[in-house]
């Protein structure tokens, strides 16, 4: 099945395309007025007329879709609120297009592919590291470097009837009854030029990883004592001898399986220890713990500099924070 590309320039183009498409035939399509945008085997990708001044480019399966899934009369009347592309002609003669991402926090590859192929002329859909943007007014000289980006957030609002009937669980916690519209609306200025009108959200900041100061303050005396002990012990260890390295890993694996994580595994001692932050904390607290040499080896086996230098201290702290899980994520 071929995937068609379109590049409508104005409302009249969409209207003409709709009028020139012969509705699909057959008993199963009778009375449905299905007008595929391109390949007639991909009939879920179609143009839908909602009125003389409103046409929808539909990709199927979303709330409001009357072809691929029946949600009931109440929900199927909401196509204009969930369709990917909506063309409108207003009373004052202006034309607008509204572009919408998928619904929910998951990935929506079908929606992304549809937007990539069917945005109007002068509008581009871009996927950048999992964040989606609509770009308008690119320069013909440097199309990849110019233009105005607008963040296209996923929609979390679902029909009220869906929220009312859902049983709360971890799979639908994202659903919202109200939400500031993430869909982007642009005014057609002609010639492939567009003006932003409304909608959209700010680009979310990724969570930051910070030190859990409360937890680390409790371990601070033990960390300092262990660090001084390790500074004296590590220079006497055959850190890079294959037999010693393998013995450290094997003994650590045996101990962690017996006391903490029965199915633990790892090709490196640091990976093995990272399976149980609790074990690492217990080693810090107990000056006579049988695994202290193993923890010291895990921290310093890949450090060639001066242990007591500032860089060595930073390296030690970073390793301790990771192995003992002394960090937490906070919103950006």
Give a description of the structure:
The protein is 33% helix and 17% strand. It is of the alpha+beta class and 332 residues long. The protein folds into 2 domains: 11-198, no CATH class; 208-330, no CATH class. The strands form 3 sheets. Strands 1-2-3-4-8-9 form a 6-stranded antiparallel β-sheet, with helices on one face. Strand 5 and strand 6 (131-136) form a beta hairpin. The longest helix is centred in the last third of the chain and has 21 residues, at 213-233. The chain starts with 10 loop residues before the first helix and ends with a strand. The relative contact order is 0.08.
What features would you highlight for this structure?
11 strands, 11 helices, 332 residues, single chain, six-stranded antiparallel beta sheet, alpha+beta
What sequence of helices (H) and strands (E) makes up the elements?
HEEHHEEHEEEHEEEHHHHHHE
Low-pLDDT residue spans: none
- How many whole angstroms does the radius of gyration measure? 30 Å
Report the average pLDDT across residues: 89
Largest sheet: 6 strands, antiparallel
- Strand % is 15-25%
Which class best fits the helix and strand makeup? alpha+beta
Strand order of the largest sheet: 1-2-3-4-8-9
Structurally, the number of domains stands at 2
Global shape: elongated
Oligomer: single chain
The helicity comes to 25-40%
* Cα separation of the termini: 43 Å
């Amino acid at each position: 099945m071929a995937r068609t590309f379109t590049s409508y320039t104005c409302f009249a183009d969409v209207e003409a395309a709709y009028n020139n498409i012969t509705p699909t035939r057959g008993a199963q399509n009778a009375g449905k007025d299905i007008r595929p945008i391109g390949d007639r085997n991909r009939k879920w990708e179609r143009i839908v007329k909602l009125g003389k001044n409103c046409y929808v480019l539909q990709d199927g399966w979303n709330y409001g879709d009357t072809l691929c899934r029946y949600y009931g009369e109440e929900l199927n009347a909401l196509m204009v609120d969930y369709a990917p592309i909506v063309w409108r002609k207003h009373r004052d003669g202006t034309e607008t297009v509204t572009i919408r991402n998928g619904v929910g926090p998951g990935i929506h590859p079908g929606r992304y592919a549809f937007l990539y192929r069917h945005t109007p002329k002068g509008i581009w859909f871009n996927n950048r590291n999992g964040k989606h943007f609509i770009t308008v007014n690119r320069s013909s000289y440097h199309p990849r470097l110019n233009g105005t980006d607008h963040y296209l957030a996923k929609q979390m609002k679902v029909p009220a009837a869906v929220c009312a009937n859902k049983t709360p669980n971890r799979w639908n916690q994202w659903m919202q009854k109200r939400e500031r519209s993430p869909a982007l609306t642009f005014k057609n200025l002609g010639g492939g030029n567009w003006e932003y009108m409304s909608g959209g959200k700010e680009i979310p900041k990724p969570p930051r990883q910070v030190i859990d100061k409360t937890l680390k303050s409790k371990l601070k005396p033990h960390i300092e004592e262990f660090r001084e002990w390790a500074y004296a012990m590590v220079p006497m260890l055959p850190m890079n001898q294959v037999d010693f390295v393998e013995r450290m890993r094997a003994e650590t694996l045996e101990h962690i399986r017996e006391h903490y994580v029965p199915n633990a595994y790892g090709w490196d001692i640091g990976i093995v220890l990272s399976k149980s932050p609790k074990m690492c904390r217990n080693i810090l607290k107990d000056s006579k713990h049988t695994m202290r040499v193993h923890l010291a080896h895990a921290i310093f086996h890949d450090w060639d500099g001066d242990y007591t230098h500032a860089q060595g201290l930073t390296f030690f702290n970073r390793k301790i924070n990771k192995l003992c899980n002394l960090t937490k994520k906070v919103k950006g």
